[in-house]
Give the backbone structure.
Amino acid sequence: MTDTYGILIDYHWCTGCHSCEIACQMEFGFAIGQGGIKVFEIGPWQIEGDTWQFDFAPVLTDQCDGCANRALAGKQPTCVHHCQARCMTYGPLSELAIALADHRKQQLYSL
Amino acid sequence: MTEKREYVLIEHEKPWTYEEDGLKVARGSAWTGPGCHIGCGVLLYTDENGRLVKVEGDPENPFNEGRLCIRCLALPEVTHSTKRLTYPMKRDKALRGKNQFERISWDEALDTIEAKLKEIAEQYGPESVLFMQGTGRDIAAWISRLAWSYGSPNYGFPLSGLACYLPRVSGMYSTTGSFWVCDCSQQFPDRYDNPEYQDPEVMILWGNNPLISNSDGFFGHWVVDLMRRGMKTIVCDPRMTWLGARAEIVLPVRPGTDAALALGMLNVIIGEDLYDHEFVELWCYGFDELAERAKEYPVDKVAEICWVDADRIRTAARLFANAERACVQWGVAVDMTREALPAGQAISALTQITGNIDRPGGMIIPPELIFYGGGFGADLLTPEQTNKRLGMNQYPLLKFGFATFQPDVALRAMETGDPYEIRGLWLQTTNTIACMGADPKRWLAAAKKADFIVCTDLFMTPTIMALADYVLPAATYPERDGLRIGDGPQRGETINKVVQVGECKSDMEINLELGRRLNPEAWPWQDVKEMFTSMIAETGYDFDGLRAVAPAYPRYIYRKHEKGLLRRDGSPGFNTATGRIELWATVYANAGLDPLPYFEEPEPGPGSTPELLDEYPLVLTTGARNWGMFHSEHRNIPRLRSLRPDPLIEVHPDAAEKFGLKDGDWVWVENQLDRAKRRVKLWPALLDARFCSTDHAWWFPEADPEKLYEVFDLNINNNVTWTPGKSGFGSNYKCMLVKLSKVEEGETHD
Amino acid sequence: MAEYGILVDYEWCSGCHSCEVACQMEHGFEPDHFGIKIAELGPWQIAGKKWQHANIPLFSEQCDLCAARTTQGKLPTCVHHCQAACLSYGTLDALAAQLKEKPQQALVALR
């Protein structure tokens, strides 16, 4: 059996630039506001002193098919390809699970 | 036969254009229009109907490595927008402001424009036509050549104090003979892996959120790359940003006081003996004088001026100076203060006295294929015409480097006819009354006095609606051929035409065709490709040859000053009068300016007009970018507009409570000059409840054209005056005192 | 290194906010501070009768995965109180195995 693929998001580094969302919308012709990935803002709020909560987190929706057609052509999913902060990784879940264990504030999705 | 310069090339898997799944793919550079300051590597996908259907980042291009921002991702919806201008139009001068344009042919448009410009030149002299551009589009070379070949010395930007990058760039040239950017390995095709390259240990992000603004050839997310590799950051920003939340230290500087902050940091670095003695000794001029000046800015005094905690300033200065490799990534906030030149000078001195000059991970001189800043063809002007350039007499610094008019002087000429009447305006890719023009109603009234106005742009704009007698439709980048030259390290890259929309022509095509009519000797080329080939002659490539191999990287050498590579005489040192980096600037002294950096309170401001604080208690900064828009563009692209439907003002919850405002309220942002509408966004991340921040360049393309798309309701530059700094550079666009009050139902600006 | 995390089965998250409030009460956070925060994924109509209408909890800097509770053998309070029982706590290894079993899940590394 072939390994399941997934997307690992190191959301500490997501800058909220929306490139994943718009790349996805354009790839599939999704309506404005829809899409297979959606970026959420967590913050900003001041935790204390100089420490602020200010993160963004992309989340995969029901419209995400893992860019199946691109995968067949040997390409990365378009969100991963265009991520400006390079905080997204595409690969076999077994490999991503190892990377997930590297540090906290990472999300792993199975495709 | 010109000898080929030495280039470092990358390997391509495929030719520059190929087929993929029934689509045609073309590799190339994304440099404008729509506006952009960088120019990423892109793959353009077109279908059998010749439509652009998809844009992807080119993973082979070392500049962006496949990444792309949303304005390029959504480009098909810009290029093929039904709102595009797609044919030339004319309108009777008496109908300016009325939505009554008439479609005409290119021949009629160019015939009439040629005849009219020749008539003006004959009757009043070519200097009475001003050639103006906006920012961020590949246009400076072509429009300047058009102006100069016509005989007008008056090419420039309708921006008070030229307050965007030019103050910093002119300042750097004046004091060092070069200009400088942070070393993020962008000059190497193998980037971070290049064996000579080392990461900066510390980067100051000064008045700049590069992730969103991507200014001046700097791909903002390189900062994230470097942070993930371990680089520390110091963020100077009145707002807590995403970058600030990840910074080693944040300096929440009061808008307009950046010069004082830099002088305070210099005071610490010199006072605590943290500077690079060897570099200062060998390569700097005027250190003792700078040290004396810095003594006038003790940290406690600076803390009071800037509203920043004194220990924070000390910590930041030490962190920066103690780093082995450090650099400053700065933004337009430095220019958009009246005394911008000394502000830039003080900030530059931080990198200079710490020796972070032309070495890995410091500040580097970006390689240049063509000197883009100087325009294209200044030799076409006679000395007599050159001397008529507006502002050159008042502001001697304009004689060096940038050959633009001084915009505040140009405005007065438009208004008063002093020193001569302005008869014609050529406005190419500038939406002046929505964007860079200060006090836009004043500028509009002055512009209306011109007998003849031609505008060139992608879309209808408030400026075109208000002013144009003739309108020429310009092209987006997939519709044109071009060379990617511009800000930042230049690479040999081409912009490649893959689609045609309506009758649009590229900006350079328009300039070439008109130029050939006005002055054929100055434009000896049959088409733009021939023109580009002649421009890059010294590279040894023709246009098609460069397109096949692009991007071509000039070989980069560090420590050029040690190797005699910066001066024309080949001796070591810098290209200045003293051969050194001039901390005490000879050029400024010769121009009658203070040769050392200094700080002046913005006026009005809490420091200069405290009596105004009762009425106008908030300090407003403007111009924060948002992801989907480039200055006044993209308001008519629904997918991008959906991310920022309205102009927002960020207000601290404490201030909102004081003014009785809640999230989403429409307010008037008002100062002693005028007011503009904004929607309140409660934002706890303003680092002082007295700060507020808003975006700029708003108009509503969906609103009534004959109300100029509500631009005067929405333009925050209603609150900005035309008052440049002493050098002619700098203007207070980003620091003003304001109050906020609710907009009553149905209330408009007038 | 990260060893522990939470597996979110967001097919079932009802958006009840129990996780948010439990977390605030556990840590004594102000009302505008969150260790976990619900994001609304939709609603928008995808096609025909199908809607994208889901909720997904996201984890902030302030999430310590209830270190105090877990050392006592208790579950993190968000997991404990989740009304839809769509949160699982465990080692990343164990949760990664569950992640493969169905879509609409995200595995978040948190400690």
